[in-house]
Amino acid sequence: PYSNYGDMASAEVRAFILLVLYCCQGSECYTDKEEVVLWMNTVGPYHNRQETYKYFSLPFCVGTKKTISHYHETLGEALQGVELEFSGLDIKFKDEVMQTTYCEIELDKAKRDAFVYAIKNHYWYQMYIDDLPIWGIVGEADENGEDHYLWTYKKLEIGFNGNRIVDVNLTSEGKVKLVPNTRIAMSYSVKWKKSDVKFEDRFDKYLDPSFFQHRIHWFSIFNSFMMVIFLVGLVSMILMRTLRKDYARYSKEEEMDDMDRDLGDEYGWKQVHGDVFRPSSHPMIFSSLIGSGCQIFSVSFIVIVVAMVEDLYTERGSMLSTAIFVYAATSPVNGYFGGSLYAKQGGRRWIKQMFIGAFLIPAMVCGTAFFINFIAMYYHASRAIPFGTMVAVCCICLFVILPLNLVGTILGRNLSGQPNFPCRVNAVPRPIPEKKCWKWKCIVCLFCRYFIFTSFWAYKIYYVYGFMMLVLVILCIVTVCVTIVCTYFLLNAEDYRWQWTSFLSAASTAVYVYMYSFYYYFFKTKMYGLFQTSFYFGYMAVFSTSLGIMCGAVGYVGTSAFVRKIYTNVKID
């Protein structure tokens, strides 16, 4: 019997150990007196959030502990310029440290000038303890801007719940005037306090709770919903009434004899039934853009869903890493839609189209990133992408994205590449009436830009990915509704060149977004310098172009379904 009790006890111990290991999986669990590492990340101007440098690029001194090397855990970390360096401070779990000097700075003229430059430009630095970020400011100047002071005392207050760290606060004290040829002592202290914050809720303090406290956000959301409902209802009512009249008129024309039909004044979208499904101009580029837009939409949808389920903001670079993985995994979507559309339009050089579709977005992103990378290298900024990371990105494009795109292209051509149009395409193109069609196209673009731009910039998005999903849905609905109306007007003017018009009218949203970025840069921020300006406008150009391609693809897909529907329901001789 005693052995049975012993077996039961050992089983309980094993279960307890497994439970502890499961609870600590993916995070750090500490025992008393165990070492806690304080990582120093980057330092840079407060107003230029992307212009960051290594922490020890400023002449700070290092603690006495042995250096610990850090490697980039994810691809996103490397691309975002995370540069963790060991602080050298001796911190142990639940072991309080009174104010202790850990090193001294011999302040010569060069070091003083470096600190003065950092203080004048409002440099701030970032640290990490157990993946929790901490921010501090380098120093401050007096009211006249003549004397400059360095904060020399880091007062750390760490909260723990059980054997986990759940809260970290930093207070900077010990203001010392910067005088050349002096020694400045750097000190720190650590205070531990018990906290009731749960480990899974420890990042809540970094989020912006004001989003839910301002009624303007809820009013904007309600206003956006009402705008979408009104727009969808208006489009449906107008199209249903107009199409019903068109069908009645065309049915009446069918009952006329040939003499009356010739004498009658035939007009409207039915007249272009033999040309409406004619291949678009430049079908290779067009199909590649549509495939890329469908892939961008898939990536946006999946990443937002993942972000809603998982708290991606709790891990460094996880959002960017997830986006890269999802983009590579959804490459068959690009190949399927682009390859099938190119096959329907009678394209024969499908391999070239597949290459263009596969590398259209990666070439744009990588080209912009590499250009900005040269500027970052000149500035010695931490945003400079390492050569190994560049090679990794190129390998992903060549050995993951390209093969998956090839698979999607083959499937698209074989499964849905047949031109099963409801109307036969005439051998000779119908002449387009001389009706100032350029006016229609200008009105189409302006109309689409206004509504889509309003829906996209109606309110800010913080960490609330559910609202971001709502914005995506609103954006797609408005895009489809407006492009359908504009395409109907175009076809009613007997202009059958609707493919590029539907794409460009929806994609013109990118122009307004990029124009807004100029307003935001000059009137809403205090950014300055070549690196920050290049970074901002370079990646805003990438974002605006990607948004335009996505909106253009969504508008074309919705308009294509509408065009097929109306020509299926009308009787064609």
TrEMBL record:
- Residues passing through the membrane, by range: 216-239, 285-308, 320-343, 355-379, 385-407, 440-459, 465-491, 503-523, 535-557
GO biological process terms on file: protein localization to membrane
Identify the GO cellular component terms for this protein. membrane
- Lineage, top-rank taxon, reads Eukaryota
UniProt keyword list: Membrane, Signal, Transmembrane, Transmembrane helix
Look up and give the membrane topology term.
Answer: Multi-pass membrane protein
Give the family from UniProt.
Answer: Belongs to the nonaspanin (TM9SF) (TC 9.A.2) family.
Where does this protein come from, organism-wise? Oncorhynchus tshawytscha
Q: What is this protein called?
A: Transmembrane 9 superfamily member
